[in-house]
Amino acid sequence: MKRYLNLFGAAIMPLTLSSPAFHHNEEIPQKYTCEGTEVSPPLDVSNPPEGTKSFALIVDDPDAPDPKAPKMTWIHWVFYNLPVNVSTIPEKSAAAPAGSLPGLNSWKKIGYGGPCPPIGQHRYFHKLYALDILLPDLKNPGKEKLLDAMKGHILEEATLIGLYQKRKH
């Protein structure tokens, strides 16, 4: 984990996104996938940078459809304007956590869609963005529209990667 120093030489911890359900670069429990109850995993936010006004989260899979020959990035969850005082995104936050606004996933639906890779083990990037603004209502944006709206306003980003491969075929 990187450590930054402030002007006085004191250590500052970077923005962190973690989960009590799985560790970075480890397997996402089946419960949070299409082979389980497909609820969103709990996520913990810590060390937001000074000046943070809101957070945005994008969960995507760059390995679709096959990690040996990826052709697209599949979007699993999008939301934004998460209040800065939130330190936990609870399990089962289907559409968007309280106080935030939802976006569209690759199924063209609002809310969380769990890992369901057709072949092989995929990586699921949970990307948290600390923003220096509260975004206007973007009317259920997709990933690209949200990224465009965040341009120039990202103070820091944290990534938690989970892995998953289907057990049943």
Q: What does it look like?
A:
With 169 residues, the chain is mostly beta strands. It has one helix and eleven strands, in the order ββββββββββαβ. The strands form three sheets. It has a six-stranded mixed β-sheet with strand order 4-11-10-6-7-9, covered by helices on one side. It starts with a strand and ends in a 5-residue tail after the last strand. The mean pLDDT is 93.
Summarize the structure.
The protein is mostly beta strands. It has one helix at residues 143-150, and strands at 4-5, 11-12, 16-18, 26-27, 43-46, 54-64, 72-83, 88-89, 101-102, 122-131, 154-164. The longest helix is centred in the C-terminal third of the chain and has 8 residues, at 143-150.
Query: Quick one: how many beta strands?
Result: 11
Give the class from helix and strand content and strand pairing. Answer: mainly beta
Range of strand content: 35-45%
Mean pLDDT: 93
Order of helices and strands: EEEEEEEEEEHE
Overall structural domain count: 1
Count of individual helical segments: 1
CATH class: Alpha Beta
Low-pLDDT sequence parts? none
CATH topology: Phosphatidylethanolamine-binding Protein
What is the topological layout?
Layout: E1 4-5, E2 11-12, E3 16-18, E4 26-27, E5 43-46, E6 54-64, E7 72-83, E8 88-89, E9 101-102, E10 122-131, H1 143-150, E11 154-164
Parallel strand pairs: 4-11
Antiparallel strand pairs: 1-2, 3-5, 5-8, 6-7, 6-10, 7-9, 10-11
